[in-house]
Amino acid sequence: MAAEAPVNAAVGNGVPPPPFELPYPEKAETITSNVLKLANLVPNERFKFITKNLLTHLHQFVSETRCSSVSSYHQLADINPACISITTEEWMTAIQFLTRTGQTCSPIRQEFILFSDVLGVSALVDALNNPAVNGATESSVLGPFFTEDAPDVAEGGSIASEGKGDYMYVEGRILSTDGTPIPNAIIETWETDGHGNYDVQYAGREKADCRGRLRSGPDGKYTYRAVVPVAYPIPGDGPVGELLVALGRHNMRPNHLHLMVEAPGHQKLVTSLYPEGDEWLASDAVFGVKKSLVVPLKEVNDDEEAKKRGFPKGGSFKLLTRDIVLVPTEESKRAREDFAVHRAKNAAAAL
Q: Which domain of life is it from (predicted)?
């Protein structure tokens, strides 16, 4: 009779050994080969495809830093440092960076999104998944400051408490690509205050500010009060901020107003509107600006008009007028498919 396993005995995950023999990884090339062979065991085909591509490029990245002309490690002191293979210390530095990135995340701060943003990966994924459709509002990056606790705002209501910045009034319509107004679309919107800070960046935040959730009217119209957003630095007190300094890059984003719009039968849109004239528009730290999203702000110097629109102190305000055009779901699907075919043809032609 077999002895019972101790109560605290280590237990595997229940997956058996692979149904094929793997050579012992005595060479660098064998390690990569074995990893890719094991990736063939992934049951989900899409996950298998993504995993194999990731592993291929990751191993290629690690391997391709070495110089084929170097015959021994002792020659490294006499060659260009760029040809030296990644060292154990350098790889540990990378792991420690990723560890600190995760440790910096919190319910109201997403350092990994920020990391993805500054590498241009967020913008790239967005561009590949949301090809431009003629007449539709283009997408932009979500950013790390979206929260789920935005308050409901009535038509013409304010997303910002008094004193948060210069007055701005936002108006427009939510339309489909054929010009049909879309009623009852859900619009999430958020921005910085006049100091360039999001509400989540303040210690002791008790409620949402400079953000709100509203719905378009029967004619697709939406209106709300806000404040003029200002350019701001993305957080520089964490590992991503340190990375930008090491790369010799600034951490500024041009001023912008975030919008996320959803309506039945249409592709969800995540975008931003960028007031023209900002010095950081062409070098946005997260690559989010598209020319079609740069908008004018009209100066309205009319005290009565300001009070009529609900601004308590009256005076002047900025007016942002912009229709938001959503893409029907089927039209969006066709656009993605056509875009994928176009990219595949270009890739094949380049071979």
A: Eukaryota
